[in-house]
Amino acid sequence: MFLIGLVIILFILEDNMRSLGFEIACALIVSSIIVQVLKRTFSRNRPYWILKNLNTYGIDLSDYSFPSGHSAASFSTCTIIALNYPKIALFVIFIGFLVAISRIYLAVHYPTDVLAGIIIGVISSLIVHYKLYELISTYIQNNFLGGRVLW
pTM of the predicted model, to two decimals? Predict the structure, then answer.
């Protein structure tokens, strides 16, 4: 929910922030699709479903564990921000790692779930940033905005 709010706020701000918000939204969509396909393919049980003595701090999730969607989403966002604003890259990647580590700490993911989520987030963001972003924005401009520029 936080990332959706962030994207909405970026859409409201000036043009270059709107562009960043759109790029983040594209990366989140790509990584979410990959995560959901893999979750349904592997159907890996969550750690607290197997090890009953783990404290999840009240978290009770109904979907599968592999890969970590939170890790993928945080690294999708962090990677896009880092690619567009290299001066704050270390800070945003640090925040992404905090999110990823929290998933293990809360006993809702195995370390390999989190690692896979990080890899998915980074790769999907690189694909969006270097390949898909221009194609998607040009397609929207030409087919839905009558050639007007998005930002």
Answer: 0.83
